[in-house]
Automatic annotation (TrEMBL):
Its EC number is 2.4.1.142. Residues 1-16 form the signal peptide. PANTHER family: BETA1,4 MANNOSYLTRANSFERASE, CHITOBIOSYLDIPHOSPHODOLICHOL BETA-MANNOSYLTRANSFERASE. It is a single-pass membrane protein. It catalyses: an N,N'-diacetylchitobiosyl-diphospho-di-trans,poly-cis-dolichol + GDP-alpha-D-mannose = a beta-D-Man-(1->4)-beta-D-GlcNAc-(1->4)-alpha-D-GlcNAc-diphospho-di-trans,poly-cis-dolichol + GDP + H(+). It is found in: Endoplasmic reticulum membrane. This is Chitobiosyldiphosphodolichol beta-mannosyltransferase. The lineage of its organism: Eukaryota, Metazoa, Chordata, Craniata, Vertebrata. Its main location: endoplasmic reticulum. GO terms for cellular component: endoplasmic reticulum membrane. Mannosyltransferase that operates in the biosynthetic pathway of dolichol-linked oligosaccharides, the glycan precursors employed in protein asparagine (N)-glycosylation. The assembly of dolichol-linked oligosaccharides begins on the cytosolic side of the endoplasmic reticulum membrane and finishes in its lumen. The sequential addition of sugars to dolichol pyrophosphate produces dolichol-linked oligosaccharides containing fourteen sugars, including two GlcNAcs, nine mannoses and three glucoses. It comes from Spermophilus dauricus (Daurian ground squirrel). Belongs to the glycosyltransferase group 1 family. Glycosyltransferase 33 subfamily.
């Protein structure tokens, strides 16, 4: 299905970091591939994926991140920030050519939902809200669930969420919660990995490890190569004469934990495992990402006297991150949802790379991680330590559980984002063309979506 000639413009709005909003980047790419001219608005402190930068149908507009005033009561400072963000976002949107559709990420939705709805009313745009989580539940982690700001944010999301033409969400649990408690009819569109998340060839693994070894010592070889023609990393070696790359005999396992370095990712769980399990395990542990608590946890890690574990906490280039996941032996996910209703995109990416996962359990994790099939689910640090000990006890045993999980992932249907988007989202979006906002706000068909 292709968009009509009068519906070729779309805005994708992220009142947050573009580079850390992969789902909205994928929306932009999929729209562009279907003939839309796309304007992606968001903060640009981290670089979006190169496919967006190379597309001649996608224009990236940088939004300025406004800070709260440094003086005054917290509620007043927050209120002033919201007012300025409202005026600023309204100005940036009104200077754009009127779009047929506005795709908006929530959270953060305050004040972006109201502003995008207002702009849509003025310009005739259809508003599509993609619910990743609830903004009020994230605020509740800081202020408490009964704080007036949290209650106001909840009322705001419920009110303005009903005014959109189409609501997408990330899990069936969230879809049911929106319908039951907010009277918002949404469509579940599961996250799927992009096409560039796949297993990494041994040649590319070696190139990546050598590149990272220039900056991060855990990737460097622990012993000298056996000859001048041999190039060695901590995990691989390459014979320059033949160009053949092989895994090092007795190489360490590579464990990756992609984290946002916030209170939702309980790094203490991993630290506790390191303290108890390092004498039984020989492994390399890589914790990637950015976030407000990275320095705090990095200091804690630095205080540990590990004998058999090397910990590395890099921030990877967008192109290197999929290569790393495709090179690793196990992923660990420490994501805990503030609402219990969203799923970690990092696990979706790992599964796209056929990387088995150990994930901390929460309400709807079963919609993604199947315990004993594509990975393991744990409740606490002790359970994680036991799982890692079991998985790595005979590493790299080709008949071990890790390889069985990887085999299951290879054999399962690995539907990619763009194919899924074309099957599910595009028909729904195009169905809103003749929908009247006054008669059916927040309503959409759910047929064929899973």
């Amino acid at each position: 299905m292709a968009p009509s000639s009068v519906a070729l413009l779309a805005l994708v709005v992220v009142l947050g970091e573009e580079g850390r909003s992969p789902r909205m980047q994928y929306h932009a790419l999929s729209l562009a591939k279907r003939g839309f001219s796309v304007t992606l608005l968001g903060f640009c402190n981290s670089r979006p994926h190169h496919e967006l930068l190379q597309s001649d149908r996608i224009q990236i507009v940088k939004l300025m991140e406004l800070q709260s005033p440094a003086v005054g009561p917290p509620v007043l400072r927050y209120g002033v920030k919201v007012v300025f963000q409202t005026v600023y976002l309204l100005w940036k949107l009104m200077w754009r050519e009127p779009a047929a559709y506005i795709f908006l990420q929530n959270p953060p939705g305050l004040p972006s939902i109201a502003v995008c709805w207002f702009v849509g009313c003025l310009c005739g745009s259809k508003l599509v809200i993609d619910w990743h989580n609830y903004g009020y539940s994230i605020m509740g982690l800081v202020h408490g669930p009964k704080h007036p700001l949290v209650l106001l944010a909840k009322w705001y999301e419920r009110l303005f969420g009903r005014l959109s033409h189409l609501n997408l969400c990330v899990t069936n649990a969230m879809r049911e919660d929106l319908a039951e408690n907010w009277h918002i009819k949404a469509v579940t569109v599961y996250d799927k990995p992009a096409s560039f998340f796949k297993e990494t060839s041994l040649d590319l693994q070696h190139e990546l490890f050598m590149k990272l070894g220039c900056t991060y010592s855990p990737f460097r070889a622990c012993s000298e190569p056996s000859g001048p023609a041999i190039e060695r990393s901590a995990f691989t070696e390459k014979d320059a004469r033949t160009g053949v790359v092989t895994h090092l005999c007795g190489r360490p396992a590579l464990l990756v934990s992609s984290t946002s370095w916030t209170g939702l990712s309980d790094l203490a769980c991993v630290l506790a495992h390191h303290g108890r399990g390092e004498y039984e395990l020989g492994e390399g542990c890589l914790e990637t990402g950015k976030g407000p608590l990275k320095e705090h946890y990095s200091r804690l890690i630095g205080q540990k006297q590990f004998r058999h574990i090397k910990v590395c906490t890099p921030w990877l280039e967008a192109e290197d991150y999929p290569l790393l996941l495709g090179s690793a032996d196990l992923g660990v996910c420490l994501h805990k949802s503030s609402s219990g209703l969203d799923l970690p995109m990092k696990v979706v990416d790992m599964f796209g790379c056929c990387l088995p996962v150990c994930a901390v359990n929460f309400k709807c994790l079963h919609e993604l991680v199947k315990h004993g099939e594509n990975g393991l689910v744990f409740e606490d640090a002790e359970a994680l330590a036991a799982q890692l000990q079991m998985l790595f006890s005979k590493f790299p045993d080709p008949a071990g559980k890790l390889n069985q999980f990887r085999k299951n992932l290879r054999e399962s249907e690995q539907l990619r984002w763009d194919e899924s988007w074309q099957r599910t989202v595009l028909p729904l979006v195009m169905d809103t063309r003749d929908c009247c906002r006054d008669c059916c706000p927040g309503r959409s068909t759910q047929s064929g979506v899973n």
